Amino acid sequence: MANRPLTLSLLLALPLAACAVGPDYHPRAASELGVPDAWSVSADQKAREDLSQWWTRFDDPMLGNLVQRAQAANLDVAQAVVRLRQAREGLIQQRANLLPSLSASGGVSHSESLRGGTRTTTLPDGTVTSISQGGSTSYTIGGDANYQVDLFGGVRRGVENARASYEASGFDYATVLISVEAETARNYVLARAAQAQIANARESLGIADDNLEIAGWRVQAGLVSSVDQEQARASRAQLAATIPTLEASYNSAVSRLGVLTGQAPGALKAEMEAIKPIPKGPAEVAAGIPADTLRQRPDVRAAERNLAAASANIGVATAQLYPSLSIGGSIDSGSSALSSLFDVITGRLFGNIAQTLFDGGTRRSQVRSAEAAADGAFLAYKSTVLTSLEDIENAIVAMQTAQRREQEFAVALDAANNQALLARMQYRSGLTDFTTLNQAESSLISAKNGLVSARSDESTALIQLYQALGGGWDASTTPSVSTTSTTGGTTNGN
Q1: Which of 1, 24, 35, 326 is most solvent-facing, going by the fewest CB within 10 Å?
Q2: 4-110+136-477 is classed CATH 3.10.170.10
Q3: Where do the record's region annotations for Disordered lie (predicted)?
Q4: Could you give the 3-state DSSP secondary structure of residue 205?
């Protein structure tokens, strides 16, 4: 019978706890976010392809290996996993607020007289009695239960906030992951492009050495003045001066690859030493329609979850305007002997309701602040959507223009190569001067480097497009938060 008041209090509280103040979150329509029905540039709007492992489309095993190593060992990705774990624990803590708290206590006390004997005491009724001054022991045990009734849904809104924040952290992890994948691939392309340009420069330097030797012979033979020889020497030195710059670019890209894969900058120099061509991917990528494509971008989905979290926070703040109700109870028992510890048990039930009557407008200001934060989260969401559309269209155009440039540079290289061969033959035969030869050689070097640059730009634009389309992740890539802590502890993921 003693439990009836507590049970009655809970039953009365349940209908009140069914309501939740604050706005209920609803996803925004594409029209509210400024999403168009079609791209403003020429793009393939067929159904979006599976881009979860887009790097395999470059058909370069070493590129695929480096991306996988970056996924496993990159420190930015590891930090994103840690933040995801923290968000998970925040959700667990918020859910715990929906449950009652229970505590138990127990104690033993012992008192001992410092001097033996008895003490004579006269009782109020005049009776004289003797009380032993020996030691005594007492035992106590008790338990307490407390429950904060979620009358107006503030706690539930807090759980909504934590859940949305946790989901946003998962999407933030995916954003970091695809960024690292794209940066790894881009630096790999830059390293291969630098290798190709260094090879071009060294090949051209060999030709410049031959031209300098021929110019020297012609000067010695009195066929030309020393101007030709000096021009050849200057041209050769200028060409040689470009090689250290290209080597620095190559070293920078390879060092970056080392760090991206969680290693020292020089860790990959031996692996990358062999010269390989710039990886080339497919000529076209299906972009899909804008609304569907944006759903694949984790940064857009993270922004949407941040908006949901901010919306739930309005309810958390609004609930503070209303009364709070807490109910609880306790039981206690005490005895001088363990055998009789549970002979007498006392208990109490209580309920407490509280309402802030005046706080100088603090709580209402907190509601307005939460509403402003939600407005800001919506603007950030819309900004992320529009920036994503911009990224995709820019990447599409960049790839298309790089393809056109590659085609033109291929024609230019063929023409420049023929021109240089003819100029060398004519110079050796004395039919033209060194200036003409030098111009032809310069055109050839420019066409070679232009073609390398166009191929590199095409590959990096394709990587940029894969990243902009949200490639490189799926739901299965989100790591389990039941992992061992980097500080030596563990999490149980409950």
Answers
A1: 1
A2: no
A3: 109-128, 475-494
A4: helix
User: What residue segments make up the domains of the chain, in order of their start?
Assistant: 4-110+136-477
Q: DSSP per residue over 108-137, as a string?
A: EEEE--SS-SEEEEE-TTS-EEEEE---EE
DSSP annotation of 340:
G
Question: For residue 113, what pLDDT is reported?
Answer: 63
Strand locations in 73-232 (E):
101-111, 118-122, 128-132, 136-149
Please, what is the Cα angle at 183 between 178 and 189, to 5 degrees?
Answer: 130
Number of other residues whose CB lies within 10 A of the CB of residue 344: 10
pLDDT for 219 equals: 76
At 68, the amino acid letter reads: Q
| 319 contacts 154 by C-beta, under 8 angstroms | yes
Which pLDDT belongs to residue 82?
A: 94
Contact (Cβ atoms closer than 8 angstroms) between residue 231 and residue 212 = no
Global pTM?
0.83
CA distances from 90 to 159, 166, 318, 335, 494 (A): 9, 8, 21, 43, 11
The amino acid at 154: G
Match 């004519």 to its residue by tokens.
426
